[in-house]
């Protein structure tokens, strides 16, 4: 992840505000349409997610000039039964979009580092995941 002293601005590095919005729109269009994870977004406000994600990225990488006012990542995702495969699929879509938009390497590295840092904050594992999805948790007889 980029250090707080980075002198570059993520929005400027991707080509300005309009290009950042187009990048995020492409990213969220792919997320919403994805067969594996699209259901997570079925009732979401795409425009609000795009704006929130731009603010989050702008506030957390590069010069960190942005201001993110949304909920903490864990809180925003705590009721979703996100498994490792779901997270990895979203992460791969982000990689693909950053490549399509030819985001500079230092920005891509920082952005993907930020994304990977969210992994343990959003995924559910083991018994917790099964309970969240409504499955009975197997307990061996004693």
UniProtKB/TrEMBL annotation:
Keywords: Heme, Iron, Metal-binding, Transport. It comes from the Bacteria. This is Group 1 truncated hemoglobin. It comes from Lujinxingia sediminis.
């Amino acid at each position: 992840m980029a250090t707080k002293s980075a002198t570059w601005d993520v929005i400027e590095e991707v080509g300005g505000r309009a290009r950042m919005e187009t990048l995020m729109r492409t990213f969220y269009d792919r997320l919403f349409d994805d067969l594996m994870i699209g259901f997570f977004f079925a009732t979401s406000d795409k425009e609000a997610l795009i704006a929130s994600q731009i603010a989050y990225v702008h506030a957390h990488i590069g010069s960190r000039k942005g201001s993110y006012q949304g909920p903490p990542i864990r809180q925003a995702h705590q009721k979703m039964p996100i498994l490792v495969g779901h997270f990895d699929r979203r992460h791969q879509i982000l990689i693909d979009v950053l490549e399509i938009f030819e985001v500079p390497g230092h920005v891509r590295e920082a952005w993907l580092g930020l994304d990977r840092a969210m992994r343990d904050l959003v995924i559910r594992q083991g018994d917790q995941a099964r309970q969240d999805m409504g499955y009975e948790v197997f307990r061996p007889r004693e």
